[in-house]
Design a protein that fits this description.
The protein is of the alpha+beta class and about 260 residues long. α2 packs parallel to α4. The protein is about 20% helix and about 30% strand. The chain has 6 helices and 9 strands; from the N terminus they run αββββαααβββαββα.
Length: about 260
């Protein structure tokens, strides 16, 4: 996601680039959730972060140890829709409890079910599983709105179809909450394919697309997105809550209109 942001910026004319500004998180307001892990388990922790001094955390991030790289890495970060954080269960020493994010029979939904529901929000507006797995929240409504508004923006001149993509990022992380449920953080990938309704029409890439499409008119464009999602899941059979998600466009491709293909 970070690399794609750099790629997109480098595709812009110099005049359109936003000057880089150094940034940092406010350590005084940071909340750390460090799970007590058994020997041999992968080491990771979650952090609630704010980039404004004295303000409540606005992001949830996961940091994981990567022995192959000999370092710790931020592997997920989600912008939260509310500063109210989930109530994470802590033991008498202040440690959190890590629970299984996948295949956990003690939760109403695991990461696989949640991921499929998120994809359904984009693909169908939540018709199949999205609105069944999730209770309405700002984040879930926003995903459905992306489907509804983007899918009709071309009118009868073109179509937009969302679909799941082969997910390269299958790691998922879960912490026990005080109600017996869990906070689950996971990633997903989806595509958005825009296409003209008939020959003679073309899609002109926007300036944000130039890094991949070079301002060449296309008959269709397939965008790929990588996203991080944060959910709270109850222990009993009840809907989960999507409390935030963050997406980045990581690729775009598509066939040029015939006149450009002939010229090439």
């Amino acid at each position: 996601m970070s690399v794609s942001d750099y790629t997109e910026t480098e595709g812009l004319p110099a005049a359109d680039r936003t000057p880089y500004k150094p940034w940092s998180y406010d350590t005084a307001s940071t909340k750390l959730y460090i799970p007590r892990l058994a020997a041999g388990q992968d080491r990771w922790f979650a952090a609630a972060l704010s980039d404004d001094k004295g303000k409540a955390p606005s992001r949830l991030a996961v940091f994981a140890e990567r022995p192959q790289h000999k370092r710790w890495e931020m592997v997920s970060v989600v912008d939260l829709d509310s500063p109210k954080l989930p109530d994470i269960a802590l033991d008498h020493d202040g440690y959190a409890t890590a629970v299984a994010a996948d295949g956990n029979k003690h939760l109403a939904a695991d990461a696989g079910v949640l991921r499929a529901a998120v994809l359904d929000n984009f693909a169908t507006g939540g018709t199949h599983t999205g609105t069944k797995v999730f209770t309405p929240t700002t984040a879930s409504k926003r995903q459905i709105e992306v489907h509804d508004k983007t899918g009709t923006r071309y009118g009868d001149q073109g179509t937009t179809v969302f679909a799941g993509a082969d997910n390269r990022y299958k790691d998922a992380y879960a912490l026990k909450t005080t109600d017996g449920g869990a906070l689950i953080l996971f990633s997903h990938m989806h595509t958005q394919t825009d296409a003209v309704a008939h020959s003679g029409l073309q899609i002109n890439p926007g300036k944000e697309d130039r890094a991949w499409l070079h301002a060449v008119p296309r008959t269709s464009i397939r965008y790929t997105f990588v996203c991080n999602d944060a959910t709270t899941v109850p222990a009993k059979a009840a809907p989960s809550r999507l409390i935030g998600y963050t997406c980045a466009r990581t690729d775009a491709s598509g066939p040029p209109v015939p006149s450009w293909s002939d010229r090439a």
